[in-house]
Each structure stands twice: as structure tokens, then as C-alpha cells.
Amino acid sequence: MERQSTGKLDRRRFLKRGLAGGAILIAAGTLPFAFRTTAIARRPRGPLRLLSIEEYAVLDAIAARIVPGDQRGKPWPSAYDLDCAGKIDGLMATLHPEVGSDFRRLLRLIESGLLATFIAGSPRPFTRATPHDQDARLEAWRRSRFALLRSGYQAVKRLVHATYYSSPEIYALIGYPGPPVVPPVPPAGGPT
Amino acid sequence: MSSARRPGRFVTGAELPASSSIEVDYVVVGSGAGGGVAAAVLAEAGARVVVLEEGGHYTRADFNMQEAWVYPALYQEHGNRCTDDLSIIILQGRNVGGGTTVNWTSSFRTPEATLRLWADQHGVRDLDSAVLAPHFAAAEARLDVADGNPDDVNANNRTLLDGGRKLGWNPQLIRRSVRGCARLGYCGMGCPIDAKRSSRTTYLADAVAAGADVYSDCRVKLIETDRGQARTAVAEVLDRAADRPRGRLVAHARKGIVLAGGAINTPALLLRSKAGNDNGVVGKRTFLHPTVPVVAFYDQPIEAFYGPPQSVAIHHFADRGARVGYFFETAPVHPMLGALAFPGFGDSHRRITERLPYVQATIALLIDGHHGDGGGDITVNEAGRIGLRYPLHESLHEAAIDALGNMARLQLAAGAREVMTLHETPIVIRSEADIAGIARAPFGANQHTMFSAHQMGGCPMGSDPRRSVVDARGRHHQIENLFITDGSIFPTPLGVNPQLSIYAHARLFATEIARKA
């Protein structure tokens, strides 16, 4: 994939990048203290089904940057207003248990100051970084040469956007009138 | 025979005890296009049939047109199915009715060129358009597939018609499987008025009327074989809210087992069962019609969230000789689906979503598997997790660049103010001169948005048992009473939307099974 995207990489360099990506994945599994310094800004709105409170806090912090509230004079709800992190927790609890484990590991990786030093030059955990730095880190993941980091960015990006934009509270803000009124008489008959 | 039989029932997992077993003539795994028609044909021939469906049983009263409910309830992996690297978002149904509950109703017969390719290069014998014709005709009648209707064309699709005509690309109206369509625009969310002729509202209803039972919330984990015969399907009974097992159902098959769980779950079931894969073919050559979208912005509202989602197709580029072909259709732009597809986050993403009513979405479906690209591989690990590794072959890159450029031309011809690719750094096209920039943009995993709504292959049919899994009547080469009737049997992608081809092939196969029983 890296070869295809640049068209210039020889196999040796590709392997090197691939190995580096693998090393990051392994590192994610050996960060037992990644959450020791996690800042818990907001409490979950309900009981968590999959995530720990620290994992929830990281996800909540990510969601706050992916869909920042109240911008440019419009009353956009925040991700917390719409309980994006809580809804994602509930959704992930219904997927294959390994998917849930991978997701928790991803949150650990995003929070990791060690990795942040490596990719963004800042040792702070994600939850303790400034909004500006948090955006820069998400950008670094999004545009990373490591396929693994791009996948990680897409995972959180899609989950947050899915929960936020499927909320009826957003509809009017984006000019969506919502589902139409269903005609009262079923025209086709058949099973209900 | 069927007239004397008592109608069957729809049974949900919540009604089942912690442990139960049943014995029938045929166990059908999956209730979409392939499972529904197989169950109907076999039950109407007098066989005792049970359909086991992993997803829930929902009806029109449940279909609330809210994406927050729809995707978790009606789609595989609660709307989260993807290739392993998350590069391709896979939209695939998981409910009673399967993909037909949530597809966009587009109905095409298998193209002649595809049937010829299968015969010439994939060893498919005794299968041509003449053999399939009566089964297409029957399926079209049952599904109310009619000629494309100009009144179905919403503004989103109108751009394909207008732009395509200006460019001489021969846009065609799509035949749709509907009756009494109110043109709401929510086919992908379950039709709230049952105007869509889905498997649930047609063939499954026929099957139940003829005595078949349809068990929902039952995920078949294993097929057990004995002395070359498929004997038993072992299912987990799921707690629907938690999507976790709450019981076990064992279904014994006196005559045979029909697999119709779709082109990802059927190969996965065989791999998990360690059955019927002596030649190592199962799960290989899985194809997706990888789909690259563009969005176009118009000065006037398009409202691509309303109206039939697909009514116009352009197949002008389906045959590009030695290069990968593609075809154009549209996608509806509801808030969540749009937000998923739009690149970026924060303010840059919001600047796109704010223009939602003015967004038009064109999609190019790349016809993978016809030109040497090998598709993807299905895997199942020890924990039972299904994977799909799908490398993006260089030939798809070339096709994607060509398709993106032509979609931009199409939309500019139709009057778009600007067209935007969905690369992470989008290419904005306002004139022909901007199109060259597409070729310089990165291509690869998570460099741009890709979807798949058409999963095919993995258990290909063919006459050579070394290269294929079933014969051209769906019968497994090694397990003689095991049949496959879903999209996994296609040796290559179709080059058109697959639902009607699955119905027709499944009807042919099931008719043969019933005749020889």
C-alpha cells in the first residue's frame, strides 16, 4: 500500500516502514501505565459497558475535537451533549470481543505520551494536551505514513461522526428536514 | 403438497429455550436473496424447511428511518463491517431479509459478458443466459421488477441522466424491485411501507406460507459433516440487545443444508467448520466492487436524502479492454452516511456537512476480479472473528483515477459548481484543468473513502473441483448434500448490482435440488 501510494518506495524501505508499524502495535500492548495520568474531564452519562473510566475519558476527549461544539456562531451541540462516547461504548460492547479489545488498545495508544513524543514531539497524554495539540495529533494520525495509524484515526473518526450525525439534534443545523411522514395506507400489502 | 401443510412461523431467539434441537429436511442458513428463494422453492416442493438467520426479525413498523437505529439493527457488525485495515467500509445486511431489506432496489440481470467470462476462464459449464432466463423472469415477476420509471429520478440521479446524455455516455434508467413506491428515499433503512419487494416480503413469506419456519437471532457457528454428508447446523441463539449467545440450537438436516449467509459469512462458516475446503479455495477471491465516491456541490438544493436512491446507471466504462472497468450510480446522502464518507474532522468536515442539501453523490463501482487482481481473502481466527484482507491492486488504482476524473466531468456537465474527491486532502475540481490533480493524489488504505455494497465470490462455482467450491447448480464438490445459493458462488463480480442475479441463480439451484430430492 505504501508502495502504491508513493510509487517510489523500494521493497526494502517498505519492509522497514512495515516493521516500524508493527513495533508501534507491540508498544500499544506494553503500555500498562498509559492511563496513569489520564485527565478525566467529564463523567459518563450512564454506566459503561466496555470501557474503563480512563478509556472513556480518552474517547470523550477525541470526540470533543472531531466534532467541536458551538462553532462559528451556530449552536452546535458538543459530542458530550450528544453522549457520543457513551453511545460508542454501548456499540462496541455488542461487537466481537476482540474488536472491543482492539478498540481499547487503540485508545491507550492515542493517549500514550510516549507515542505522542514520537509522532508529534509532545510528551503529554492526549487528555492533557491543549485542543490545538490534540488536533495536531489527530492530523498526524490521519496523514501518517504508517497504515496502522491511519486505520486508528479512521476508527475513531467514523465512530464519532456516526454517533454525532445520526442524532436528530443535528438535523436542522445541516439543513436536513428529517425523515418524511409515512403515507398512512401501505400500498403494497403483504407481510407487515 | 404445500397446500396441505400448515403455514410455518417466524420465531425469534427470545422465544427459544437455552438448548433445543430440531430436525427438518433442509436447513437454510441465511434469509436474504439466496436463502429466501431457496426456502420458498424447497418448501413449496413439499420439503420441511427451517431458515436460520443471525439477525433480528424486523417489520415495516420498526423501520423508523433513523440512521442511529438502522445501522446497528439491520447491518452486519452493527454497521461496522470493514476490510481488516478499515480501508473499505462494507455495507451488508444482517436481519430477516438480509441485504434485500436494506439494498437500494436496483435490479439487473447478469451481463452476457460476465457469463461468457465465467464459461471461458472459470470453468463454468451448463450455465448461460438461456438456462437462467426463466429464473430471472420468475424472480422479476415475484419482486415486481419493472422497467425503469422516469418519475423515480430524483435530483441526485437527474445529474447522471443530464450529464451522461451531454457526454454521450448512455445513462440508463434502473429497473427497481418495488410496488407502490412512495419515493421516500429510505430503501437503505428498511422500507416503512413494504413497497420494496425484499426477500422478507416475497420469498420468505412464500416459504412460511408453504410451511417453513424462519428462526431469527440464530447464528450458525458450525456445519457438522459425517462421511461426506452435511448433517447438522449448530447455532448460537443470540440475545438481540447484547448480541451475545444466550442459548444453543442444533438443526439436523435429513436431506441437505443450504448456505446463504452472503459472500463473507458463508466462506467464514465453512472455514470455521473446517469443512469442504480440501482444495483451499474457500474464502479466496472475495470481491467487493470497491466503490469510490465523489461529491458535487450545486447552487440549488439536491436533497439527495429524498427520493429513490438509485434510478440511473452509466455502464459506458464497464468494458475498458485490458483495464479494470467501472460503472456509475448514485448514493443517497443522509446525515450519518454522508458524514462517514466526508474526509477530515472539526471545522473542515463541518464545512461540508453544513452544505448537505446541496450535495450530490456519484459513485464509481470498480469491477474487480476481471483483470487479474485477486480480490480479498476471508479469514477466521481461533476466537471466531471474521477478517477480510483486501489489498488494493495497482489496476484498481488506475481505474479509480480514471473513474474519479470522469465523475467530475459528468457532474460539471450536469451543472455542478464544483466537484470534490473524498481523499483525505480532497481534490476540488471546478474545470477540466483541475482533473489532472487526481492522478497525483495518494491512493491506498485510508487515503480516501471507499465503500462496498456488493460482496461476491469466495465459494466460486465451476466444473473443476480443484479450482471451485460448488458446481454450476450450487452443489458442493466434496459434500454432496451441501449447497450454496448466495453471492459467494460468483467466480468474479457481476459488473452490476447483484441482488437479482442472486435470486435467479438461487432459484435455479433450488429447483434442481428439489427435482433431484
What do these coordinates show?
The complex is a heterodimer of chains A (192) and B (517). Chain A has nine helices and no strands. With 192 residues, chain A is mainly alpha-helical. In chain A, α4 (84-92) crosses α8 (147-165) and α7 (131-142) packs across α8. Chain A is globular, with a radius of gyration of 20 Å. Chain A starts with a helix and ends in a 21-residue tail after the last helix. Chain B has 13 helices and 23 strands. In chain B, strands 1, 2, 3, 8, 9, 10, 11 and 23 form an eight-stranded mixed beta sheet that branches. Chain B has a five-stranded antiparallel beta sheet with strand order 15-16-13-19-20. In chain B, α1 (33-44) runs parallel beside α13 (499-516), α5 (129-142) crosses α13 and α6 (155-167) packs across α11. The mean pLDDT of chain B is 97. The chains are: A mainly alpha (192), B alpha/beta (517). At the A-B interface, α1, α5, α7, α8 and α9 of A face α2, α9 and α10 of B.
Structural class of chain B: alpha/beta
Total DSSP E strands of chain B: 23
The number of helical segments of chain A is 9
Shape verdict of chain A? globular
- Let me know the number of strands of chain A: 0
Oligomer: heterodimer
Instruction: Please give the share of residues in helix of chain B.
Output: 25-40%
Major β-sheet of chain B, in short?
Answer: 8 strands, mixed
Average pLDDT of chain A works out at 82
| Biggest sheet character of chain A | none
Q: In percent, how helical is the residue content of chain A?
A: 40-55%
Shape of chain B: globular
Instruction: Report Rg of chain A.
Output: 20 Å
Integer-rounded radius of gyration of chain B: 22 Å
Largest interface: A-B, 58 and 74 residues
Span between termini of chain B: 15 Å
Assess the beta-strand content of chain B as a share of residues: 15-25%
